[in-house]
Amino acid sequence: MADENVVLLEEDNGIFTITFNRPEKRNAMNPAMHQQMHKLLSDLRYNERVRVLIITGAGESFCAGQDLKEYFYLLADESTKELRERSREQSNQWRSHMLRLFPAPTIAMVNGYCFGGAFSVITSCDIVVAAEDATFGLSEINFKTAPLGLVSRDISEKMPQRQAMYYALMGEPFSGKRAAEIGLATMAVPKEQLKAEVRRIAEALREKDPIALKVTKDVLKISQRMDYEEAYAYSMALAGDLTYKQDGAWMKSGIGEFIEGKSRPGLNEKDTH
Ligand code: COA
């Protein structure tokens, strides 16, 4: 398949879906895919129509990790140094910076294989919904290396250390159901329900206030690394920013609807009459 089609983008009323599109290579990430993801995410982050971003894979695989041939083997030579450096940088930036800090909520829809470098894709997403029978694996040890780049950092944050260590040392594959049990995935659902479940989540997110969603993402991700006093100060600064950017909508229509008896926010309910 030609390199121009390795990533697909669909838009449906604010819900954008990126599909890794090398099904014949189990959606392994080659330099062309890194370049296209880098470009796409640079553009999408400034696109205010994006209310939710879903990432998934074409065919039976989510993503088989880095392309062992095109990303590693063929780039090992001195003559390919420039492409190697460029691809490495793009690969890190789009997964561990652009996607991790994407302004709108992001959902990884893990439909099948998810190996090695693909862990940094899912750990950078806010929500991970896996098919129960998807296959995850930190397979690097099986080809005589380790989860390098930022994969080790990402799994240390998003998997319990005992499980990260076990799966990284053993290279043993595990199911989507297991990924949810250990907290790597938000949830696992039967494969035939995967799209509908992701759609349900995306539509619910689309109804929320986008500025409040962004603040929720920032405060959860960034205050995690602060001490108590810093976290409080940062949170209060965000509160001011939220009020300013929304023109006080949380106080006016948000709390206003509750006071007028038109909503029960605790139950995520609104009176639509
Ligand atoms: N890099 C490059 N090519 C890959 C790939 C990868 N990570 N994963 C799969 N492919 C390619 C295969 O080389 C094969 O290409 P070919 O048809 O031109 O020979 C094609 O995808 C299908 O792979 P195949 O092994 O025949 O399919 P499968 O369904 O039996 O097994 C996997 C799929 C993903 C389990 C197996 O290919 C695999 O173990 N891949 C390596 C996964 C990995 O360790 N990734 C971590 C990288 S950081």
- Which whole number gives the mean pLDDT? 95
Compute the number of structural domains: 2
Q: Let me know the largest β-sheet.
A: 6 strands, mixed
- Strand composition percent: 15-25%
* CATH topology name of the largest domain: 2-enoyl-CoA Hydratase, Chain A, domain 1
CATH superfamily of the largest domain: 2-enoyl-CoA Hydratase, Chain A, domain 1
Order of helices and strands: EEHEEHHEEHEEHHEHEHHHHEE
The hetero compounds bound to this protein are: coenzyme A
Q: Any key phrases for this structure?
A:
273 residues; alpha/beta; 2-enoyl-CoA Hydratase, Chain A, domain 1; six-stranded mixed β-sheet; 47% helix; globular; binds coenzyme A
List the helices and strands and how they pair.
Layout: E1 7-12, E2 15-20, H1 31-44, E3 52-57, E4 61-63, H2 68-72, H3 81-99, E5 106-110, E6 113-115, H4 118-124, E7 127-131, E8 135-137, H5 151-158, H6 161-170, E9 174-175, H7 176-181, E10 187-189, H8 194-207, H9 210-223, H10 228-246, H11 249-259, E11 263-264, E12 269-270
Helix pairs in contact: 1-3, 4-5, 9-10
This protein binds coenzyme A.
Overall description:
By secondary structure, the chain is of the alpha/beta class. The protein folds into two domains: about 5-205, 2-enoyl-CoA Hydratase, Chain A, domain 1 (Alpha-Beta Complex); about 210-265. Helix content is about 45%, strand content about 15%. It is built from eleven helices and twelve strands. The strands form three sheets. It has a six-stranded mixed sheet, with helices on both faces. It has a four-stranded mixed sheet with strand order 4-6-8-9. Strand 1 (about 5-10) and strand 2 form a beta hairpin. Helix 1 packs parallel to helix 3 (about 80-100) and helix 4 (about 120-125) crosses helix 5 (about 150-160). The longest helix has 19 residues, at about 80-100. The chain is globular, with a radius of gyration of 20 Å. The N and C termini lie far apart (about 50 Å). The structure holds coenzyme A. Coenzyme A binds next to helix 2 and strand 6.
